[in-house]
Structures are given as C-alpha cells and as structure tokens.
Amino acid sequence: MLPNSDELAEALLDLAVPHQDIDEAVRLSRHITGDTETLRILDTAVTDLVQDMGQIRGTTLDIPGLPDATSATARFFPLYVFVAALPHVRAHHRERGIPDDVSRHTLADVGRCVAWHRRWHGTGGLLIPEWLTLHFHGELYQLGRLQFQRSRIGRRTGASIAAAGLPQTPGEPALAVHVPDFMGPLTPQAVERSLALAQAFFTRHYPEETYPVATCASWLLDPQLKRRLPKDSNIVRFQERFHPVRPPTAPEAPEASEHLEDMEPVRFVFGTTDVPLDRLPRRTVLERAVLDHLREGGHWHVGRGWLEL
C-alpha cells in the first residue's frame, strides 16, 4: 500500500508536505508497514476513499483513526492514506485529461493541511483530513486562487436562485467555491481569473455536467464585514460578487451552538482559537475588525451566497 522510504519522501514532496515534516513522516511509516492490523485499517480507508472515484458524494469522508489516537503515528496516519490513494486519483485525472499542473496544485492541499497542523498544534500531522477526501475523490480542484467543488444546489440557495428568476432548482449541479489559505491576497483580478479558469476547466473535463451557478458558504460572506472593512477591501469586493442567501428566520440550532461560528474568522485570520482574544495581534484592518466586533458583543456568522457563471 505504501511506497518504500525513498519513494515515500518523493510522494510527500509531490504533495507539498513541508520539508521539516518529511523525515518524521518517513520514519514513522515503518509502524504502518510493520503492523498487520494497522495495514488492514489503511487498506480499508483507502478502499472507501477511492470507491466510485469521480462520483459526486457531496460530503467529506471520515478517515479512521488508530487505536492509540495520541501517538505521532496516529497524527500522520491520514497522510499515509492519501499517499496510498495517490495513484488512484492520478489515474482519474489522466482519464479526464486534466493537466498535470492542475492535478499537482489540487493535491498540494495536503501540504497546506500539514502546515496548518504545525501552525495550530506545533507538531507534525494533518489538520482536518476529512476535507482532503474531496480532492482525492475527483470532486474538488484548485484553479488559480480559488478551489471549486463539484456540488449541488441546496434548498435555501435554490430558493434564492428561484427568486432571482433563474431556472436552477435544488439538487441541480453547482460549483462550490472555497478560498484556501497561504495563497496570497484575494484580489478581484485573481478571483476573476479563477472563475474564468473554472468555466473552461469543467466544460472541457466534465462535459456531461453543466454548472450555471457557483455557490459559497464562508465567514468571508458575513455581511457584517462590510461595516468593519473599507469598501474597496478585497473581502468586501469578493462579497459583492455573490447574491446573498438569507439565513433562516428561526435558528436551526440552539443559540449557544450558533456562537461557535464566532471562531471561524478567528481561526482563519489568526491561525488559532487557543489564545485569549486580548492577546491576539491587531496589526491589520482585518485583525482589528474581527476582534473589535467580538469585544463589542457581536457574533460572526457563516454567510452564504451564489453567483451566475
């Protein structure tokens, strides 16, 4: 299931795993290949991941953990799952004629998640590995500054689209837009280029699917940011591309659960939620906006929107 040490190191480089984490990942791999039960768990995880490759599952897949969840090997275990699945997703990309650079940039999100783990916890590992199951199932692609997931229109978004007079309905295809970290500023030019790349990419490589709209669910679309940021900020200009989807009139979850969304911008702007708010830096307009809103008793929310392609 796993390549030997030399080939494993090369595969980790291909996946943009930071150099400082490669030695440990290669060293710990012997605990995988030398244990029958761990190999069985790995085989099951890879089989589940690559099953029905290219079909739209519409949800992420849980990666099983090892019995000793606190060990270093357990922290790296999802990384070995993706290395073992790499030949399968590459074969799918070849079958679809997907360019090597798009394939490489897409799967390099593994390295981003390793970097996030070290930034968050100070150790090697893989943060939120379930997210990467979309990449390794042929459902998500990095195209310029943005990522695009083959997805479907949800109920509330469908109602908003219908109110605008378009024929698309819930359950029909849509591209879900994601904004990755460590990719530079979210300039209007970069967004425009990504949207153009996405239209050409999916028309060419998934011609049987039609994507007339793109959707987005992100803290970046919280309309309260417009009151906190300059009108010419990249985030505000990104928001203005989307038709907002109204939140439900009644909470879908208890108020305490709603407030969990407060930490979404904190998580992405500061890279941690473990530091008290009064100890976080206030170097940029965005950092000050996120913190001041919370200190004044406000709450952040995940906003939703759509745009016509």
Short description:
48% of the residues lie in helices and 10% in strands.
Give the SSE layout.
Elements: H1 5-14, H2 19-28, H3 30-33, H4 36-50, H5 72-95, H6 100-107, H7 109-121, H8 129-132, E1 140-143, E2 146-152, H9 155-163, E3 173-178, H10 188-205, E4 213-218, H11 225-228, H12 234-239, E5 243-244, H13 255-258, H14 263-270, H15 285-295, E6 303-308
Parallel strand pairs: 3-4
Antiparallel strand pairs: 1-2, 2-3, 4-6, 5-6
Helix pairs in contact: 1-2, 4-5, 14-15
Write a structural description.
The chain is α+β, with helices and mostly antiparallel strands and 309 residues long. The protein is built from 15 helices and six strands. Strands 1-2-3-4-6-5 form a six-stranded mixed β-sheet. The chain is globular, with a radius of gyration of 20 Å. Residues 250-254 have low confidence and may be disordered.
Q: Major sheet: order of its strands?
A: 1-2-3-4-6-5
Runs in which pLDDT lies below 50 for 5 or more consecutive residues are 250-254
The profile of the biggest β sheet is:
6 strands, mixed
Average residue pLDDT: 93
Order of H and E elements = HHHHHHHHEEHEHEHHEHHHE
Structural class: alpha+beta
Please work out how many helical segments DSSP would assign.
15
What spatial form do the alpha-carbon principal axes imply?
Answer: globular
State the end-to-end CA separation: 41 Å
Helix content: 40-55%
Q: Radius of gyration, Cα only, in angstroms? A: 20 Å
Tell how many strands the DSSP assignment holds: 6
Strand content: 5-15%
